[in-house]
Here is the input.
Amino acid sequence: MKIAILGGTGSIGEGFALRWAEKHEILLCSREIDKAVSSAGKYTETLLNKGFFCCGITGCKNETAIGDADVVVLSVPYQGVIALLKDLRPYFRDQIVISLVVPMKKNKWFEYTPPKQGSAALEIKEILPETTKVVSAYHNVSAKKLASLEKILDYDVVVCGDDEGAKRTVMELTREIKSLRPLDGGGLASSYMIESLTPFLINLAIRNGLSDLGVKFV
Ligand SMILES: NC(=O)c1ccc[n+]([C@@H]2O[C@H](COP(=O)([O-])OP(=O)(O)OC[C@H]3O[C@@H](n4cnc5c(N)ncnc54)[C@H](OP(=O)(O)O)[C@@H]3O)[C@@H](O)[C@H]2O)c1
Here is the structure.
C-alpha cells in the first residue's frame, strides 16, 4: 500500500514511517518539501543502519502525496489539522484517512477539548469528501516508543470507524506493528472516548512519575 503521513516530520509520524516502511511505500509529508526530504532521508538511514528492509520513504509536500495514497495518516496537532484539511480537501477522493488527533489543552493539567461535533474524528469527517473513509486510532500510543524499533509496544489500539472494510485495513496495519493489538471500538461516534483518554494518561504519568503510558485491556 501507499501510505501518506501528513506531518510525518513530527514526533509520532516518525514512528509510523519506521514501523510501516518494511511492507509499505511511505510518502513522508510536510508543508515544506525540504523538511520532508530531509526527514525521509534520516528515517531511511535509521532503518538501513539497523538492518531493516525499507520499501521506500519519499519526502513530499502534503498536497502532492494525498492523491497517490491508499491511506492518509493525519499526524498533525489539532490546532493545525482543521485549517490544513480545509485547504487539502480537493486532493482527497476515497482514501482511508486515519485520525490520531487529540484536541486538548493544558491548564494546570491536560484537558480534553472536543469540538462541537463531539470529537476530532467527527469534525474531520465533516470536512473531508463523503467518499473518504475516516478511521480513528493510535491516540494512546507513545510517539517515543513507536519510534524506538527495539521497544516492544505492549499496548491495545482501539480502532473506531463507520466503514467496516477501512476499519479492518487499519486493524491489519496495527497488527503489523509488533505487539500492538487492535480492538474494534465501534463506529466513529465512539472516538471521543478514546481521544479523551490521552490527556488523562499524560496527567497520570506526570502525577505518578511514569512515562509513555498506554492502554491495555485485560
Ligand atoms: N506525540 C504523541 O505521543 C502522540 C500520541 C498519540 C497521538 N498523537 C497525535 O498525533 C498528532 C501529531 O502529534 P505530534 O506529537 O507528532 O505533533 P508535532 O510533532 O507537534 O507535529 C507534527 C507535524 O505536524 C505539522 N504541523 C505542526 N503544526 C501545524 C500546523 N499549524 N498546520 C499544519 N501542520 C502542522 C508539522 O509538520 P511540517 O512542519 O513538516 O508540516 C509537524 O512536524 C496530534 O494530533 C496528536 O494529538 C500524538
